[in-house]
Amino acid sequence: MVQKTYETHHNSTTVTPRELLEFGLDPAVLWNIDRDKQINKQIMIVSALKNGYSTDVINKLAAYFGTPVVLKALNKYRDRVSDTLFKTVENQLKIHSHAA
Fold this sequence. Notes:
The chain is built from six helices and two strands; from the N terminus they run H-E-H-E-H-H-H-H. It is mainly alpha-helical. Strands 1-2 form a two-stranded antiparallel sheet.
């Protein structure tokens, strides 16, 4: 199976949880969501991060959507996330982008 990267998805405004699960995102962060529902990608990113912002989750979201898209979503919904979450994700994305 060929894994798709953010180049295939950056123009889409919605995503299904199933797509993220097939990409390898931990099912625990999407446990309470209809897997076939089309969801705004920025809302999906923030929701996934709020449910579990481990290094793996952050890196998977960055690999799927692209670091700029994840940062844009985080900034757009800044009032909905804690300072700790925001700083953790921001720092991990810096590391992820240097490793890529």
